Amino acid sequence: MARGNYSIVLLAWLITFLPSRASPNPNGDGYVRDACSVTRYRDLCVRSLSPFSSTAKHNPSKWARAGVSVAIGEAKRVARYLATLKRNRNGSGRIRGRNRIALSDCVECFQDTLDNLHRSLYVLRKLSVRDFGSQVEDVATWVSAALTDEDTCLDGFDEETGKRVKPLINRVSNVTYMTSNALALINKLATAGPECLKNG
Questions:
Q1: CA–CA gap between residue 149 and residue 142 (Å, rounded)
Q2: What is the CA radius of gyration of the chain?
Q3: pLDDT band at 16, cuts 50/70/90?
Q4: How many CA atoms lie within 13 A of 155 on its CB side?
Q5: 157 three-state secondary structure
Q6: What is the residue-wise DSSP string for 120-148?
Q7: In the list 150, 167, 184, 194, which could disulfide-bond 132, CB 3.0-4.6 Å?
Q8: How many Cβ atoms from other residues are within 10 Å of residue 193's Cβ?
Q9: Chain segment 54-113, per-residue pLDDT in tens
C-alpha cells in the first residue's frame, strides 16, 4: 500500500473508532447556559455549575441548590484563607493597621455568610408545594444577607489595596459573584413556582 493511502486509512480508523474528547455535550452545555442566563456573572456561573447539568437539566429547584452549594464551597475556602491571614502575626505577609481590624471583621462576616448559606441549602433540599412561597422567600432573605455580609467585608478594605490586600479582595469578590448568581437562581425558582417541584 502506498504511504499516502496508508495515512488516509489510519486517519479514517482513528476518526471512526476512537472516542472524541474534544466534543462537548451540547445538551449539557445548553442546560447550564439556560440556567445561568438570569445571572449577572454568567461566565463564572457556567464554569462553576456545568458539572450539575446532567442532573439539574431544566429544573430550577436543582439549579438553585447547585448555586448555593458552589457558593458555600467557595465561601469555606475563603473563610479558611482569612483565618490563616488572621493567625499570621509575624510573617512577611501579615496584614497591619486598619487592615488587620478589617480582617477580623471579615472573618466574622464570613461566619455569618456560611450560616446563612447553609440554612438556605437546608431549606432548598426540603421544598414542598404547600410551603413553597414562604420557603423560597426565607431562602432569598438569607442569601441576600450573606451577600450583604460579604460586601461588608469588602467595605472594610475600601481604598486599602496594597499588595497584601489585593489577593484577599479578589478572593472575597469571587464569593460575592457566586452568591449573587445563587440569588439570581433562587429568584428564577420563585418565578417558576411550586409546579417545578412536580417535575423531579
A1: 11
A2: 22
A3: very low
A4: 8
A5: coil
A6: HHHHHTT--TTTHHHHHHHHHHHHHHHHH
A7: 194
A8: 13
A9: 999 999 999 999 999 999 999 999 999 999 988 876 554 566 677 788 899 999 999 999
